[in-house]
Amino acid sequence: MSDAKTLQPTLIENIWPSHAGSSGLLRGVLLAVLGAAALTVSAKISVPFYPVPMTMQTYVVLMIGMAYGLRLGVATVALYLAQGAVGLPVFATGGGIAYFAGPTGGYLVGFLVAAAAMGALADRGWSRSLAKVFAALALGTVIPFLLGVSWLAVFLGDFGKAVAGGLLPFIWGSVFKFALAAATLPFAWKLVERLKSKS
Predict the structure, then answer these.
(1) DSSP letter for each residue of the chain
(2) Which of 9, 16, 92, 139 is the most exposed place for a label (fewest CB within 10 A)?
(3) Model's pTM, two decimal places?
(4) Segment 3-25, tens digit of pLDDT
(5) From CA 81, how far away is CA 91, in angstroms rounded?
(6) Interval 29-76: pLDDT, tens
């Protein structure tokens, strides 16, 4: 059982505090829907980059995990994955349960695990300390690749090909998204604190 005293308000809690009852449930649903929509949009946008174009999906997963916390972060990514599983075209090239058995299945599951890991750390104040932000974001960046490449290796039957096709082309894009998230979080906290001090 977790100690409630160790939990600290997340970024979204500071922006939009939760309340018990139906209003709190509505808040959670709205934030989860907004987060799932952001994941969908980020999967569809292809940004020119080296050596391959990149989507901003990992960046959004990083931000959801660190801003939402464990429960809301996991619920949001789970909603997104559920939408894709039932056939809604929320993934980069469509939707359907076959995506989870295909070459990208490990990455999709990795998004959920990464959101859970970062959310648990954010609940303990890791989204405010710069050093801890770096550590949490590094974990959130590595997890999808760890699970994704592992599953891709099983799918292809060749670990070397999995690394060559599922990791190496995306390293620089991941570094960029890591750096962007690391810059966004402190800025967001400062903005929220400044606005709260003026209210």
Answers:
(1) ---GGG----HHHHHS---SSHHHHHHHHHHHHHHHHHHHHHHH--B--SSS-B-SHHHHHHHHHHHH-HHHHHHHHHHHHHHHHTT-S-BTTB--THHHHSTTHHHHHHHHHHHHHHHHHHTTTTTTSHHHHHHHHHHHHHHHHHHHHHHHHHHHT-HHHHHHHHTGGGHHHHHHHHHHHHHHHHHHHHHHHHHHHH-
(2) 16
(3) 0.92
(4) 555 788 999 999 998 876 667 88
(5) 9
(6) 999 999 999 999 999 998 888 778 899 999 999 999 999 999 999 999
Distance CA 152, CA 145 (A): 10
The span from the CA of 88 to the CA of 41, in Å, is 13
Residue 94, CA distances (Å) to 35, 83, 89, 122 in order: 18, 11, 4, 31
